[in-house]
Design brief:
By secondary structure, the chain is mostly beta strands. The protein has one domain (35-169): Sandwich (lipopolysaccharide transport protein A fold), CATH 2.60.450.10. The chain is built from one helix and twelve strands, in the order H-E-E-E-E-E-E-E-E-E-E-E-E. It has one helix at 2-18, and strands spanning 37-40, 43-47, 52-57, 60-63, 68-78, 87-98, 101-112, 116-126, 131-133, 138-142, 145-155, 160-169. Strands 1, 2, 3, 4, 5, 6, 7, 8, 9, 10, 11 and 12 form a twelve-stranded antiparallel sheet that branches. Strand 5 (68-78) and strand 6 form a beta hairpin. The radius of gyration is 27 Å and the shape is elongated. The termini are far apart. 16% of the residues are buried.
Length: 177
């Protein structure tokens, strides 16, 4: 009689555990993206039919399948439109590049020729649409005028800028000796 209750208990427990969902806790099965190529002190060029369009200098560069990560890097982007501007310079301690999108972090310096300069700790830059954005404090320089603020949204194609807490210091004595 006791054996029959024991057998029925095991049968009931096994049927109950059959319907309990099981989680796969295999951490090793999670996808970890492995670098395809690692460069030490690279100097990389992007060549077109006519000229060198981009130059990248960095202390380290790591290429993954979907992105590139650059450390202590400077990127020079040459203008594709003549008579607009000559050169853009992006510099930061860390740069992540995915297609035409750049994320710059720590000691970010963005410069367009000699008329626009921006210093901040974080910047999102879209090279295709020419948009620079951030959500942290920044300070900048635009045609001999200083400005600072936070939450920058700068459309470089039409030179329109939106920002929060912006403060301009306009030099009214420009050109006066």
């Amino acid at each position: 009689m006791d054996i029959r209750y024991l057998a029925l208990t095991f049968l009931a427990a096994s049927v109950a555990y059959y319907f309990v969902p099981v989680e796969n806790k295999n951490v090793a099965a999670q996808k970890v993206e492995v670098p395809q190529v690692i460069f030490e002190n690279p100097l990389m060029y992007t060549l077109t039919q006519k000229e060198v369009s981009n130059v990248i200098k960095a202390s380290n560069a790591v290429r993954y399948e979907s992105r590139e990560e650059l450390f202590n890097a400077t990127i020079y982007l040459k203008s594709k439109v003549p008579d607009e501007y000559a050169l853009e310079k992006l510099s930061a301690d860390f740069i992540r590049k995915s297609g035409f999108n750049y994320f710059l972090k720590d000691n970010v310096d963005y410069q367009r020729d000699d008329f626009f300069k921006l210093e901040t700790n974080e910047l999102y830059f879209d090279d295709k649409n020419k948009i620079a954005k951030n959500e942290v404090p920044y300070k900048g320089f635009y045609y001999n005028n200083n400005f600072k603020g936070s939450h920058l949204d700068f459309r470089l194609n039409d030179n329109s800028m939106k920002s929060k807490n912006i403060h301009f210091e306009i030099d009214i004595n420009k050109g006066v000796k």
